[in-house]
C-alpha cells in the first residue's frame, strides 16, 4: 500500500520544529516506516537551492526567479525522495510543501495563483498531501519568537504586512480544503498544541 503524505505549515515562529519531533514520536508509537524531510530542500541539490533562496543578498530577487527556484527544488525532492518513499509504502512527513508557495509567493509576493497552479501541475501532477497541519499564531507573536532564534533569513526580513498576507492565505487554504487541512491553534501552551495534534493524527489514523 502507498504511504501517506503529511505536511506541516505555518508562518515564522509557529513551532514547526518542536511539533515535527512530536509527530515523529507519534509515528514511532504506531511503528510506521517513515521519512522526515523539508522544503525547500530534502536532497543535496534541493538543499543548495534552499541556500540560494534563503540567503539575504543585496541583489533583489525577481518574483518569477524565486517561484521557479521553489518549484525546481520541489521537482527534485519529489523525484528523488517523496515519490520513491510513498511508492515503497513509507509515510512522508514534510516541513512545508506547495501550500507554502501559495501563501508566500502567491499571497506574500502577489504572484498569480494560475501561474502557481500551472507549475504545481507540471511538477507534481495530481499528487497532494493526505493531511496538512497548519500551525496558526498571530504574526507578531511568531516573529518575536523567530527573532530570538537566529539572524533573519531573506524571508524573515519581510515586513509584518507580508506575514499577515501569508497567514491569511493559510487560513483560506484550510477553509477551501477541509478534507485535507486542519488548523492548529499554536498560541496555546505546548501541551495544548500537542493535544490538538494528537487528536488530529488519531482521527486521520482511523481513516487509514
Ligand atoms: P523554514 O523551513 O525554516 O520555515 O524556511 C523556509 C522558508 O522558505 C520560509 O520562510 C518559507 C519559504 N518558502 C517559500 O517561500 N515558498 C515555498 O514554497 C516554501 C516551501 C518555503
Structure classification: alpha/beta
Number of strands: 5
What percent of the residues sit in helical stretches (DSSP H or I)? Answer: 55-70%
CATH superfamily: P-loop containing nucleotide triphosphate hydrolases
Rg from Cα: 16 Å
Ends apart, CA distance between termini:
10 Å
Strand ordering within the main sheet: 2-3-1-4-5
**Element order, helices and strands?**
EHEHHEHHEHHEH
Described by the principal axes of the CA atoms, the overall outline is: globular
Can you tell me the CATH class? Alpha Beta
What is the makeup of the main sheet?
5 strands, parallel
- Give the rounded overall mean pLDDT: 97
**CATH topology heading:** Rossmann fold
Q: Which parts are unreliable, with pLDDT below 50 for 5 consecutive residues or more?
A: none
| Bound ligands | thymidine-5'-phosphate
The number of helical runs is: 8
CATH architectural designation: 3-Layer(aba) Sandwich
